[in-house]
Amino acid sequence: MENGTAPLASDGSTISLGGGLAGRYAAALYAHADEAHALDQVVEQMDTLGRMIDESPFLSRLLESPLIDVSTAQKAIRSVLTEHGFNKIVQDFVGVVVSNRRMRALRTIVGTFSALVAEKRGVVVVHVESAYPLSGVQEQQLRARLIEAGYGNVNIVKRVDPALLGGLVVKIGARLYDTSLKSRLQRLQYAMKGAA
């Protein structure tokens, strides 16, 4: 995080670290994991949980469904977490989120926790959208440019958006650098309308 700017969730929405529901849950988990000397393991497992939510239609539907009662959701989620080897801290934390009827906020809480950890460790989270997946060389070049710009310790979060047509959209905190072909074409269209 840079100068207190807000991080972004996986869907591109802004995450508030200072307060709000997700911020309170994330701060509580961070404090508990740190106190239990299990922070590194919890960080790794929360990242895994975020990927699981993003990649598993079953888990996404389970968290989003208003029709599933709390006890059924508790059993299902605990079963999934146990099967994947999550530790007691993460299982209990997710259990509290579910029992407080905050299942729909779990993905946001995971993202907020990740942003909080990055902030505490001095890591700058850089969200990069491209029309096609970045190659290893392109990612290294991007990382080198970010280091040149003064961002030494970065975590690059990549997302592919074919609608961009080409180029990149880079978000660093509240800063946005849009070199996509889509935005260039839009600017050209506005300029041509103004000239007509």
TrEMBL record:
Keywords: ATP synthesis, Cell membrane, CF(1), Hydrogen ion transport, Ion transport, Membrane, Transport. The keyword Manganese does not apply. PROSITE patterns: ATPASE_DELTA. This protein is part of the stalk that links CF(0) to CF(1). It either transmits conformational changes from CF(0) to CF(1) or is implicated in proton conduction. The keyword DNA repair does not apply. It comes from Limobrevibacterium gyesilva. One of its GO terms (cellular component) is proton-transporting ATP synthase complex. SUPFAM superfamilies: N-terminal domain of the delta subunit of the F1F0-ATP synthase (SSF47928). It is found in: Cell membrane; Membrane. It is a peripheral membrane protein. Belongs to the ATPase delta chain family. NCBIfam families: ATP_synt_delta. GO terms for molecular function: proton-transporting ATP synthase activity, rotational mechanism. InterPro entries: ATP_synth_OSCP/delta_N_sf, ATPase_OSCP/d_CS, ATPase_OSCP/dsu. This is ATP synthase subunit delta.
